[in-house]
Known about the structure:
Layout: H1 2-13, E1 17-18, E2 30-32, E3 35-37, E4 39-45, E5 48-53, E6 61-66, E7 105-109, E8 115-120, E9 129-133, E10 145-147, E11 150-153, E12 156-160, E13 171-175, E14 185-187, E15 200-202, E16 208-211, E17 224-227, E18 238-240
Antiparallel strand pairs: 1-14, 2-3, 4-5, 5-6, 7-8, 7-18, 8-9, 10-11, 11-12, 12-13, 14-15, 16-17
The protein binds 2-acetamido-2-deoxy-beta-D-glucopyranose (2 copies).
Signal peptide: 1-20
Protein name: Carbohydrate-binding module family 13 protein
Domain Ricin B lectin: 102-240
Amino acid sequence: MAKLLAFALIAVSATNVAFASTLRACLDPLPIQGTNFPLTHGIRNGPYVECEYNHAFASPQFCFYNATSLALTHAPNVPPVNDTTIPVDSNAACPTTLPLAGSYRINFPDTSGEFKCVTMSDGSDGAPVTIQDCDFTGPSNQVWSFVGSTIRQGDKCIDVTDGRNIDGVKLQVWTCADGNTNQQFQHSGGAILNQPNDIIHWLAHPDKCMDLTNGDETNGNQIQMWTCFSGNTNQMWVINQP
Ligand SMILES: *[C@@H]1O[C@H](CO)[C@@H](O)[C@H](O)[C@H]1NC(C)=O
Ligand SMILES: *[C@@H]1O[C@H](CO)[C@@H](O)[C@H](O)[C@H]1NC(C)=O
């Protein structure tokens, strides 16, 4: 009975959303009149998402979006946040809606305040999904796509080994297959990137969450599923732009 009640509480308290085309981010880069301006950063700023670009002549440039409606918000109408006046959006080329993000890193905030990255250790079926230092050079085995409820690189999906619904079952990659419930996840973050404490649930068993095994940040530690537990820092991820 206690178990049933706990499950019911999890089910109603988590606002799970499928990964399917839900996450939005600043364009990287922003094309203006044939020139690409690289994104400096995209952050949540109060009720807005702020996208900042390097511009050779008038740097920086900003696009502001309503973090709820995802619509472009022009800065002259934006009130100060914490007494800091938000810079004027002078950029008419901002998309009218915060664009969909195509690829992502799944980060774990380590004890030093840096991020580590969820990594496909290699591209073969059964290869462990691990935590590693983020590597921003060259082709990355840390950049994931969200397709439907799957988290994938090419045709390899994050997969709960043998679909075992037990605490401590490890995550691997496996060839993606439509309808394979071992490969379907949801997360509790909102529709935009950079939500802290994003909880990643197993869709088939939403009381199980992606969990950094023993909270051990050592490179190569294989990620597992564990019963979701509110406040468990081993289960708090941040989904970011690559
Ligand atoms: C405003 O300041 C408070 C207190 O320092 C902080 O917690 C909050 O995140 C700030 N909000 C923004 C949008 O910067
Ligand atoms: C953002 O959009 C929502 C929904 O349309 C609206 O209720 C809210 O007032 C907007 N916020 C700002 C700061 O404009």
